Amino acid sequence: MADNHTNALAHRVGERRKHRRHFVDLPVDCRVIENERKGPIQVGMAENAGIGGLSIYLNEQFPCGRQLIIELYFRDGYEFSSLKLLTEVVWSRDEKEVPGHKHGLKVLRLENGGNQRFQALLKSCPMLM
Question: What is the pLDDT of residue 121?
């Protein structure tokens, strides 16, 4: 019942996401794909994530439609692990609170076995309201 109420409330305030977002605060490496070649690595931070996408901060601003390979770094028990995601920029803007540019990314593909690992990571993170 609460889930239906939450969905109805999100719909009323103009929420367009299909999947809930989770607070992640994780370091990322980002590589631009241009002409089927990978560009230099840029370091950033992921702010929130959901099954369909994530929000990250990067020093460079990328246009909508640009494909990026994102590697998320996280703690998995007592070890560090990472996930690679092929993403596409769906929005980008300058942020006044922090240096850099905030990007909304759509997840196009995860590395082998990445879906289950990504879902497990999200379950361990607090949900955004």
Answer: 86
Considering the segment(s) 20-123 as one domain, its CATH architecture is Beta Barrel (2.40)
CA dihedral 9, 64, 50, 25 (to 10 degrees): -110
Nearest partner of 107 among 58, 61, 46, 59, judged by Cα: 46
Side chain identity at residue 81, one-letter code: S
CA distances to 12, 73, 76, 78 from 65, rounded to whole Å, are: 28, 24, 32, 37
Burial of 68 (0-12, 13-18, 19+ CB in 10 A): buried
Secondary structure element (H or E) that encloses residue 119, with its range: helix 114-123
Residue whose entry in the numeric block shows the structure tokens 């439609």: 65
Better-scored residue on pLDDT, 43 or 115:
43
Report residue 17's pLDDT band, with 50, 70 and 90 as the boundaries.
Answer: low
How is residue 54 written in tokens? 């994530």
